[in-house]
Amino acid sequence: LPEAAQRAQDFAPRPMTAAETVLLVQAYYDLGLRDLAVLALDRFTLEFGFADELWVTYANLLVEAKRWDQLRQLAMKMRAHEAVGVRLRALSFYLEGRSELGQDHQAAAEDAFNRVAELPVENFGLAVALAANLRRLGYPRLARGLLVPHQQEGENIYAFWRLLSQTAHGLKEASLLSLATEKAFRLAPGNVEAMVNHTASLLVTRQRPDEAMRYTFELLQKFPDRPVVRLNHAAALL
Fold first, then answer.
1. CB-side neighbour CA atoms (13 Å) of 68
2. Is 80 exceeded by the pLDDT of residue 177?
3. Alpha carbon distance 109, 101 (integer Å)
4. CB 102 within 8 A of CB 66
5. Buried b / exposed e across 141-162, counting CB within 10 Å, b at 16+?
6. For the chain, how are helix, strand and coil distributed in percent, rounded to 5?
7. What is the pTM of this model?
8. Which pLDDT does position 118 carry in this prediction?
């Protein structure tokens, strides 16, 4: 590995496409040459600026490296870029907010994140990724706003409903929680987490007690020593 890293440092390739740039950056990253990865992205992101994956790769690398000033600059470049300025506008405000949050500028971060909520995010994958990050950072209301318009696209995707149920739980929104946990459970009936969440939602909303009792009993058979399972079954019986 040290020899490979040295050869990579000595070799100065010029990628011909956005895809080649991503591969080059990944190679640098895997070899521990993160500064070279950042330099390559800084040099070629604008050249191949039409490629969303380059902007996203660059942003992820800067977040991981906690290079907050560079991240803010990248967000500004993204908004100013003719090819992706509109398409990735919501992402650019998220990155600006992440930069502010990384520097403990809470108010400025919230202002930027709120701008995300004001913009339509038509790309399903981008909406889900932004929602997941905002929920993780403590902004479930903003995450909800990104996810709810995409329910039809996420209809058959377990991960989508799992994220929406987590978001609804954070907001203590019972009706949305009930919908999301049931959708997740129907898509993955053998998934223990999905069953637990769906059952808990039935108990909280006091819906379909016979169903709640059946599932809590099934969980009790599988995990008889878990206190939470026993308590949930007792609640269902009551």
1. 10
2. yes
3. 5
4. yes
5. ebbbbbbeebeeebeebbebbb
6. 75, 0, 25
7. 0.81
8. 93
